[in-house]
Known about the structure:
four-stranded parallel beta sheet, alpha/beta, 14% strand, Rossmann fold, 11 strands
Amino acid sequence: MSYDLERPRGLLGYMLAFEGVTDAATIAHAPTGCKQYPADLSEKAFRSRNGGYAVRDLFSLEKEYYFFQPRIPCTYLDGDTFVSGASERLQDLYNLVVSKRPGLIGVINTPGASLIGEDLTRLSSDIPTAVCESPGYSHSMSEGFQDGTIEIIRTLCKGKAAEKKGVCLFGMSICQYQWEDSLKEIKRMLALCGIDVIAAVCAGSSAEEISRVPSSELNIVINREYGERAAQYCKESFGTDYVCGLPLGFDAVRDWITEVCGRLGRDPTPALDDLACWRKKTAMTMARLDTSFIHISGKTFSIDADGSLIERITDFLYSYLGMIPVAVSSLDKEVAEKVRSDFEAKGIPVKDSVWNEEADICLASGNTVSSLKSRCLIHDGIDIIGPARMHVCVRDEPLIGTLGTVVLTEKVLDIVARIIK
């Protein structure tokens, strides 16, 4: 059986780059069908926007342009407007958005609107405005996200800074699973070493905070496919160097902390001590399971995720927990092929699709996990990318960092314990 899945594309990634700025407003020059899903996703992914969890009041939202959704108003192109254009409607919507006084405005064409040839550059006000007449519609979501990130930096940041202090985070997006908890964990680890975060670019920071990107002493790229190109743009434009790496897995977190602190001349000891404490606690938990004849070594897993995640997770599950991969797939085909080749060199054959392979555990989106579980191909799974299954959790549950590694280990151990019981 084969599956041809609908994958999120560059337009959605471009929109979500703007939606990740706390005080930005995104205008879609589009029919209503092009705005409804991105608007819904943005609202659900960033409920804590502007500092609090607002109760959604449908009657407080404008019917025209917003169509009872709080995010991403559109010009609702239809019929004759696809031929003659909708410049008056676009200007009216832009003026409405300006009256709400956001810190940044993004105006984005959708495929149908790109055919009209509407001049978006004529939209201007005292609020920084970025326009995109033709996003990379066929690009992946991560490529679109980076295109949007670069355009935002180009719009908000003017010239090099006289003094550099602190760091900026790149490669995090509101579309990533548990992104707020992961961001909090990254900031916690850096704070232990006395490192201040100026901005998490397009992931929960304001337009004013992003405007200070040129003053960053070092840029830190968390997920390569979502941030490395934007960090390279900053290096060329502002002279700011960057490091790239996903801190997931005890050894990877140790190396990441050591590299960041080494670049900044900071003492990594507090964060490394914290890591050692959690590593010891994890080892003690695994030892107790061993006494109950619950052994994780030799259990199998499959994984489908972004390239950065599959690199780190497969290495951690194999080298630390002794688990065996049976299938590895990703939109980043080069990374997935490299991971499979590395294991095949060890004598472990790995398939290129999770959809037809039996495994004890699958790490993927909630939809993928649910489908594989319903077909009895896996015992259970762990959501590591969206869309996720319904899951209620009051405490923080990061995907990366020291605590993210502990949470991942805890979930794997829990599934293995249930399999054996």
